[in-house]
Automatic annotation (TrEMBL):
Residues 35-161 form the Phosphoribosyltransferase domain. One of its GO terms (biological process) is adenine salvage. Belongs to the purine/pyrimidine phosphoribosyltransferase family. This is Adenine phosphoribosyltransferase. Homodimer. It is found in: Cytoplasm. It comes from Nocardioides glacieisoli.
Length: 182
């Protein structure tokens, strides 16, 4: 079974920096080469899923949420690895039934996220999974959505954390598991 260090090495080796995308001054972290490599992708999913287990390997969460859009790619297989359900956190207007919604600031703009009102049960312990922790705004908004449903966010697992943006100032006491800090 791959270890955390294998996942970190894969991220360092395969992630491609794309300068000035989606706008000038932003360096986009392209993880598509990581996803295309079976061994790297497997190691990353195993490492992210560890955030949903205790020290004995027991699953300690009831649901995994993934934030649109790259969070979906990671969170769904993490949920499968843990043997629990996956809940998508979508951009505004993408979910067909009654939702909770939260608006927040991004690194380079604003966004609104939504979740179906019945996607998370009262008392559910929820692990949040995404690709990059930048400003912490998406995590804070997602935690608010989880709590609006009656659930409890137990932690967040991400591939990369942009430490220079100080995202943990927005995540409070929430445990953060990151594979690579930039």
């Amino acid at each position: 079974m791959p270890d955390r260090r294998t996942a970190q090495e894969a991220l360092e080796r395969l992630t491609v920096d794309v300068p000035d995308w989606p706008q000038e001054g932003v360096t986009f972290k392209d993880i598509t080469p990581v996803l295309a490599d079976h061994h790297a992708f497997s190691a990353i999913i195993t490492a992210l899923a560890a955030a949903g287990r205790d020290d004995h390997g027991n699953v300690v969460v009831d649901k995994v949420v993934g934030m649109e859009a790259r969070g979906f790619i990671l969170a769904a297989p993490v949920a499968l690895a843990l043997g629990i359900g996956f809940v998508p956190i979508r951009k505004a207007g993408k979910l067909p039934r009654e939702t909770h919604a939260v608006s927040y600031a991004l690194e380079y703009g604003e966004a609104t996220l939504e979740v179906h009102r019945d996607a998370i049960d009262a008392g559910d312990r929820v692990l949040m999974v995404d690709d990059v922790l930048a400003t912490g705004g998406t995590v804070a908004a997602t935690q608010e959505l989880i709590e609006a449903c009656g659930g409890t966010a137990t932690g967040v697992a991400v591939l990369m954390e942009l430490g220079f943006l100080d995202p943990r100032s927005r995540t409070g006491d929430l445990p953060v598991s990151t594979l690579l800090t930039i």
